[in-house]
Write a structure and sequence with these properties.
The structure is a single chain. The protein is mainly α and 253 residues long. Helices cover 49% and strands 0% of the residues. The radius of gyration is 18 Å and the shape is globular.
Length: 253
């Protein structure tokens, strides 16, 4: 990779990896919290619902947090069956009450046994991000009565998905960031292993900059982009997500 491209992307990373980025991004939802488990739960819902207009995503996520009485971890662990009726009115695009109630059930089951959601990714076996994402999918859908329809909301490399939303979630949880954007509260997964979230804006800019050649927007494309970003910064390759996304959304590059 040429030094001119690195300089260009480094400058845009510096520009967009700032607290001001948070306000209009779904990461603003977990940023409301300081308790680790609240951050994990709010972050998972925010990442899962992150498609469509960002303003609508944030509004729907805030609605969901309010339904959890503003305290996600406490609600997940201590709700009564009657408390779940309120979620029958919640919907975002194709994410419907069945999906919401299953997520709540899975999280209840998980947090009764574990202190952190990280173990749903890393407990069975460690390895690369592909393994961790597969672990998470398998952990969720090992639940009895897991609805088939919800599988489309939990991506996995096994279906060749680029796993954009879960890779974004892992960036939030894993990447060590002293600028008040990413949290870096998980330690089993290393930031060097992260895969760049491949959304339409990142993809468009990456192709224009010659960072992505593969025609399909799939898992192999996400790997190709990230491998090219590792040549620019092997220790923190997904920091360039800020640059690519900012160039695509803010500057219509």
């Amino acid at each position: 990779m040429n030094s001119e491209l690195k300089h260009f992307l480094d400058n845009n990373y510096e520009k967009y990896n700032q607290p001001s980025f948070v306000a209009e991004d779904p990461i603003s939802i977990p940023r409301q919290f300081t308790k680790k488990q609240d951050i994990e739960i709010a972050g998972l819902f925010a990442a899962t619902l992150a498609w469509g207009q960002r303003k609508t995503i944030i509004n729907k996520c805030n609605e969901l947090i309010q339904m959890m009485d503003g305290s996600p971890h406490d609600f997940i662990l201590n709700h009564q069956e009657n408390d779940l009726k309120r979620f029958l009115s919640f919907k975002h695009r194709t994410f419907n009450p069945t999906d919401t109630l299953f997520f709540i059930d899975f999280l209840n089951h998980h947090y009764k046994r574990h202190q952190s959601l990280e173990t749903a990714f890393t407990e069975d076996q460690t390895g690369d991000i592909e393994t961790y994402l597969t672990n998470f999918h398998n952990s969720m859908f090992a639940m009895p009565d897991a609805p088939d329809r919800t599988r489309k909301h939990v991506s996995t490399p096994k279906r060749k998905s680029a796993c954009k939303r879960l890779n974004m979630y892992l960036r939030w949880m894993v990447r060590k960031d002293k600028r008040g954007v990413d949290f870096g509260i998980w330690n089993t997964i290393d930031p060097t292993q992260l895969i760049c979230p491949l959304d339409v804006h990142v993809e468009r800019v990456a192709r224009k900059l010659g960072l992505l050649q593969r025609k399909q927007t799939d898992w192999q494309a996400a790997l190709e982009l990230t491998n090219n970003l590792r040549q620019l910064d092997p220790l923190d390759p997904v920091k360039y997500d800020f640059a690519l996304f900012g160039l695509g959304v803010m500057e219509k590059y």
